[in-house]
Every structure is written in C-alpha cells, then in structure tokens.
Specification:
278 residues, alpha/beta, Rossmann fold, Alpha-Beta Plaits, 2 domains, four-stranded antiparallel β-sheet, 9 helices, 12 strands, 22% strand, RBD_domain_sf
C-alpha cells in the first residue's frame, strides 16, 4: 500500500468454516488477494475504501459447530477490537453458518461478507470478477451506513452534548430531534455556542461520499461519540475536550490520500488557544 494512500485502512479478519484444515493456507491467500482487489476496484470507483493487506486474525471453525462460531466471534471482539470487517468462509449454500454469521456480526457491530468455500478456493472462477467486487463494495458501504446510523433494532447509544458534562444526554441516532440538530448546526455554521463545542471538532476537506463510519475511523485511536456530515465537512463529537485537543493536534493537515488533506479544527475557542500555546 502506497504511503500516499488513505492512512486509516480498514482492519479485517477471516472466520473459516471448513472441514479440511489443509485448505486454510489457500483461504489466507485468497483473503489477501480479495483485500487487494477490493481496494483496487474501490479506487477505480472513486470510493474511499482501503483494506489492510493482511487479516488481523484468521480462525477456523468446524462445520456445523455453533459454539465454535460464537467463540470465534467473541475471540475476534476481545483480541482484535479494531476489526471492522469479517470475511466468513461458508461451507456451502444455505448453510447454518450463514445465519450464524448474520446474527454474530450484528451482535458485535461488524460488517460481514460471506464467501462460499468453492469461490474462495477458485478466486471466483466462472463469475464476472468486476461485478462480484462491486457488489461487495456496495454492500460494505450500505452496512457501514447502517452501523453508523443505527439500523432499527441494532442502534448503538451515542452521546449528544448539549451543555456541560453534567448535562450529557444519552440518545440514539433515530431519537435526535430538530432542536438538537439545530443547536449543533448553528454552532458550526454560525459560530453560536453549540453546547458540545468543548468536545467537538470540525473536519473539512473530506472526500465526497464518506460515511459517518469512515469519518469516525479516522479518529479510531480516540473515543468518538458521534459524527454529523454536512457536504464535504463533518462535526465529530469526542469523549471530552482532551480528546478534541488530541484530534486537532494529531490530525490537522492529515493526508488521507494523494488528493485530500483534512483540516481538523476545535469548535471551542479555549481548545484552539490551548493548541496554539503548545
């Protein structure tokens, strides 16, 4: 991967439901090939999607072993919490593993991609590769949006700061009302007090089409509580003003790719002054 490429490549893992462990090396090789092909095709489409060249974790599970599947996803969650995508190798069509993959990926907030063992071993031989890759990319983008916005029944709690820390409001994306949105937008567009300004930054210069999930991934080393996108800019709310300070100090002028350098500026005047003083 070029140093000019998007620096926050997506981490991914492989869960292989196979009966023959001798096939595992071929599956690992397929995974790396798939990651490179997805990255290349996404670039052709102008989409900001880059996968790390190697999986963070590869684990095999016996076919038909529901307990093994649960253990594999739990291990992934505990040992490689940065993983966002799981590539699950399925033994055959209409397998129980497909349903387990869906439920377990939902439980741990993962993007899932099931691949039939036969297709993995042949690298999709007999299929139109470009069509397969584009379908995968479209699905990943859709699933990313679901995770970022909180699809019905699978919402994750977000913090919307409408005042000092003691007035922190616990809510969900679907529950944010017009008054809350207006407060944040006014703070960004008109310079009025947004309430959560101490813990928020404005991110400008983003590539067109980035999702909330992808924007949050830029600051994966910090605690991101929420993201709101407006055109090619975003407001990112972090855990507290110290995280906002770090976000601006570490990521202002950060090079996403050879075409995009982002500008990260605190909404709080006090935090701005602290950065200047360093």
């Amino acid at each position: 991967m070029s140093s000019e490429d998007y620096g926050m490549a997506m981490k991914w893992a492989i869960v292989a439901s196979i009966a023959d462990l001798a096939q595992l090396p071929a599956i690992k090789s397929f995974g790396s090939w798939l990651a490179a092909e997805i990255t290349s095709e996404a670039r052709q489409l102008g989409t900001q999607l880059i996968l790390e060249p190697m999986p963070s974790l590869v684990t095999n599970v016996l076919v038909g072993d529901i307990g093994g599947n649960c253990a594999a996803y739990e291990k992934m969650h505990k040992e490689t919490p940065g993983v966002q995508l799981v590539v699950h190798i399925l033994p055959h069509e209409n397998s129980e593993e497909y349903n387990w993959m869906k439920s377990l990926s939902a439980r741990y907030g993962l993007i899932r991609q099931g691949i039939l063992l036969e297709n993995a071993l042949t690298h999709f031989e007999g299929n139109e590769k470009t069509e397969v890759l584009r379908n995968i990319i479209q699905w990943m983008a859709r699933r990313s949006a679901e995770l970022a916005r909180g699809k019905a029944g699978h919402e994750k709690p977000f913090d919307l700061r409408v005042g000092p820390d003691e007035f922190l409001v616990k809510t969900k994306p679907g529950m944010i009302n017009d008054a809350m949105v207006k407060t944040v937008v006014n703070g960004v567009l008109h310079g009025t007090d947004a309430g959560d300004a101490d813990s928020s930054v404005r991110v400008a210069g983003l590539p067109h089409g980035m999702s909330e999930f992808q924007v949050a991934s830029i600051f994966r080393n910090l605690s991101v509580c929420g993201v709101s996108i407006h055109a090619d800019e975003a407001v990112v709310t972090l855990k507290n003003k110290f995280h906002a300070h770090q976000a601006a100090a570490l990521y202002n002028k950060f090079q996403l790719d050879k075409y995009h350098h982002i500008e990260v500026v605190p909404l709080s005047h006090a935090v701005k002054e602290q950065i200047k003083a360093v």
